[in-house]
Amino acid sequence: MDTAISMDADGGSHDAAINRFEKVALVASETPRAQEAFSKLYSQRDWVPLHEADAVVVLGGDGFMLHTLHNMLDMRRIVPAYGMNRGTVGFLMNRYDNRANVTRRLEKARGKTISPLRITAVTQDGEMHKMCAINELSLLRETRQTAKIEVTVGSRVRIEELVGDGVLVSTPAGSTAYNLSANGPILPLDSSMLALTPISPFRPRRWRGAILPDEMRITLRVLEPAKRPVAAVADQKELRDIAEVSVDIDHSSALELLFDPGQSLAERIVSEQFAVD
Fold this sequence. Notes:
This protein is α+β, with helices and mostly antiparallel strands. It has helices at 32-41, 62-75, 102-108, 178-181, 265-272, and strands at 3-4, 24-28, 55-60, 81-85, 110-114, 117-123, 128-133, 136-141, 147-153, 156-170, 193-203, 210-213, 218-223, 230-234, 237-239, 242-249, 255-259.
């Protein structure tokens, strides 16, 4: 269960800059590190519930940030999100410092807008499901049998039969996550592109994926679904026994992430391309 604090409106005096966000929510994952940070920060100001907030401070890792962003999409109340890393990688988060004034850090932060994927999935029994993904949509084989998937981009079938463990469609924001692990390209945040990346492809053996304009719709149809069942995973939501999915970008549901000066998501995406383990 997420943790949040609700208190009376802030009665203190602030200058014009500090009033940029008057109503701020504080949420934290259930991990001990996030809960400890929550306990230390809740006394710094008065907080409100997320459904009343102008902005939200998120304590946790990238997974919990995605969870919070999805909650806002479900609530149809999208406000800027400022993450503080109490997880592992923290690619979408800022550095945590319990000695710093959270309100002042929030006011100095700069925003970056990202747009999620809009997904329509049809299962083998004909049921239609609407989903969204901030990082990526993945189609993954459910059994030992390799998946066989027909790939359509725009109005043309581009690959009649992709054979392998699956395929994924990634946004620029998600291109350094699962997409990168599958040897997909890192996309600049403002590129207006999507990455279409195969997962352990067997055929076509030399196809390594594609970079596509985000206004193009991608349709993935599962071949031999009874023998070779495939699951669709949209960020943290899984739907099994897929027949077909269609994917495009949803600019109408743009999300805003806040970062400390000099620590933007765009810079992190560039830096990731020069990282050497």
